[in-house]
Specification:
The N terminus is likely disordered. Helix 2 packs across helix 4 and helix 3 packs across helix 4. The chain is built from 8 helices and 10 strands. By secondary structure, the chain is an alpha+beta fold. The protein is elongated. It has 2 domains: about 90 residues, Arc Repressor Mutant, subunit A (Orthogonal Bundle), CATH 1.10.10.10; about 160 residues, Chorismate lyase. The strands form 3 sheets. It has a 6-stranded antiparallel beta sheet. The protein has a two-stranded antiparallel sheet with strand order 1-2. It has a two-stranded parallel sheet with strand order 3-10. Strand 8 and strand 9 form a beta hairpin. The N and C termini lie far apart (about 75 Å).
């Protein structure tokens, strides 16, 4: 007796189909010493960099890539897993694999400003506030300033690739007398050094958190989202606190990279 499959069940068994498959005319070099998974990785990245597979595009499924390139399913899966781990792809259960922009990475322990970190990228800063204020006790203690002494407060919005990445709140002892006429959309560290202050080192902590209502609005989100929060105290070469900064980053767009050495 013939069994008729429910149309809904039949549709559920189908893999999501990419409209970009017909554009994949290039082939892998099966005789090359370069591993096939690595060749496929480069092919996918080339298409993302060219804009053929823009952010949010559905890429071909594992079975489609297997047929197109004549390689094993295991090789395809290894490639997609690698690109997912590196932040270039996002797998959505029941929907497929989508192209995405990788997280912006800061390599520690170099002491750099946001402008210096983002060299070579489409990045900018928008000044939200700049002026002298009476600091909260916590910040006064961090900067080692006396009660009644003001600090220069600078709040900026970081923008990368046309989208808000996060906010920076900087606090600098008022005795350094920063001008309100300065262009603070530029590198703050270069502005600090221009005044004759020589920065030596910084101590930084990193923590996971969730956005505040203000951050949801500033970063153009619709709801609360995970954030990566940094607290950094910068000191001069003589050990005096020069700046305390709190940075709040979109958790899915930013990450830190550290190289650790085991002492022997």
């Amino acid at each position: 007796m013939a069994v008729e499959m429910n149309p809904v069940d039949a549709e559920a068994k189908k893999e999501p189909q990419s409209s970009l498959v017909t554009n994949l005319s290039d082939k892998l070099d099966l005789s090359s010493l370069i591993p096939l998974y690595y060749q496929l990785k480069n092919k996918i990245l080339e298409k993302m960099e060219s804009g053929e597979w823009g952010e949010g595009s559905l890429i071909p499924s594992e079975s489609e890539l297997q047929k197109i390139y004549g390689i094993s399913r295991a090789t395809v899966r290894r490639t997609l897993d690698l690109l997912s781990n590196e932040g270039f792809l996002e797998k959505k259960r029941g929907k497929g694999t989508f192209a995405k922009k990788p997280r912006i990475e800061e390599k520690l322990p170099a002491l750099k400003s946001f402008t210096e970190e983002m060299q070579g990228r489409d990045a900018s800063k928008r000044v939200l506030a700049a002026g002298y204020i009476e600091p909260p006790p916590k910040i006064r203690d961090i900067l080692n300033i006396a009660p009644g002494e003001q600090v220069f407060h600078l709040k900026r919005l970081m923008i990368v690739d046309g989208s808000p990445l996060g906010t920076l709140d900087s606090y600098i002892p008022g005795r350094y007398k920063f001008s309100l006429q300065e262009d603070y959309s530029k590198s703050l560290y270069q502005i600090i050094e221009k005044t004759g202050i020589q920065m030596g080192e910084a101590e930084q902590t990193i923590e996971a958190s969730r956005s505040t209502k203000e951050e949801v609005v500033l970063l153009g989100m619709k709801a609360s989202f995970p954030t990566l929060v940094i607290h950094r105290v910068v000191k001069s070469i003589t050990g005096e606190p020069v700046e305390y900064v709190k940075g709040v980053y979109c958790g899915d767009r930013y990450r830190y990279n550290l190289k650790l050495t085991r002492y022997r």
